[in-house]
Amino acid sequence: MRNRFGHGIQLYLKENQSLFLFTIVLFTMGIIFGAVLVNSLDLSQRHELLGFLNYFFSNFDKSGITDSSLHFQQAFGYHLKTILILWVLGMSIIGLPMILLLLFLKGIIVGFTVGFLVGELQWKGVTFALLGVLPQNMLVVPAMLIAGVAGISFSLRLVRTRLVTRRDSIMPHFAHYSILMGSMFIILIAAALLETFLSPLLMQYAIN
């Protein structure tokens, strides 16, 4: 069973390696663009964001996450909406560019967050980014890239089966697509658990 599953993963990666390469490049461009955006902020915007960051640090250092269950529910809901949006967009031909846009925006958010922390706090910002931002994103980013590639691949298959060949049945591919999306959601739930219970401890360590 494990060998079959592993072989299926390898086959999927091989069939979609060009899409994976494209989405990784797109995501990387988003990170670079987000980091560049930090340099475009004027002095008042920098002071406003830095003041909010210092306020967050001071309050977080005293109490951490006051309601872990609420924080987990919010993270769970956010990831659920993300997967549902990608799943729905993948089932429509016109949703393909929206999937690419979402991946690019995710890269911008990561690049801007890390770029601002490092630019304003130097080595403390590097430490905070590594301990507070990196852990959950080590799961979130790959899951989003895989879900994005799955959506793009299924959307392209819809084009082929509905507009070109009109022969291949779409239902088996739809089942595989939905199972893969569900698997990515499970990974995002794990990321939400990290964000709720592990990252706060690491963030408090970084702040201190």
Describe the secondary structure blueprint for this structure.
Layout: H1 2-15, H2 17-39, H3 43-63, H4 68-90, H5 96-164, H6 171-207
Helix pairs in contact: 2-5, 4-5, 4-6, 5-6
Organism: Brevibacillus laterosporus LMG 15441
Protein name: Stage II sporulation protein M
Transmembrane segments: 20-38, 85-118, 138-159, 179-207
What does this structure look like?
It comes from Brevibacillus laterosporus LMG 15441. Keywords: Membrane, Transmembrane, Transmembrane helix. This is Stage II sporulation protein M. The chain crosses the membrane at residues 20-38, 85-118, 138-159, 179-207. With 208 residues, the chain is mostly helical. The chain has 6 helices and no strands. It has one domain (3-207). It has helices spanning 2-15, 17-39, 43-63, 68-90, 96-164, 171-207. The longest helix has 69 residues, at 96-164. The protein starts with a helix and ends with a helix.
What is the radius of gyration computed over CA atoms, rounded to a whole number of angstroms?
Answer: 20 Å
- Secondary-structure element order, N to C: HHHHHH
Classify the helix fraction into a percent range: over 70%
- Which regions are unreliable across 5 or more consecutive residues at pLDDT < 50? none
How many domains make up the coordinates?
1
What count of helical segments does DSSP give?
6
Q: Tell me the strand percentage band.
A: under 5%
End-to-end CA span: 47 Å
Give me the count of strands: 0
Overall geometric form: elongated
Transmembrane segments: 20-38, 85-118, 138-159, 179-207
Protein name: Stage II sporulation protein M
Organism: Brevibacillus laterosporus LMG 15441
InterPro entries: SpoIIM, SpoIIM-like
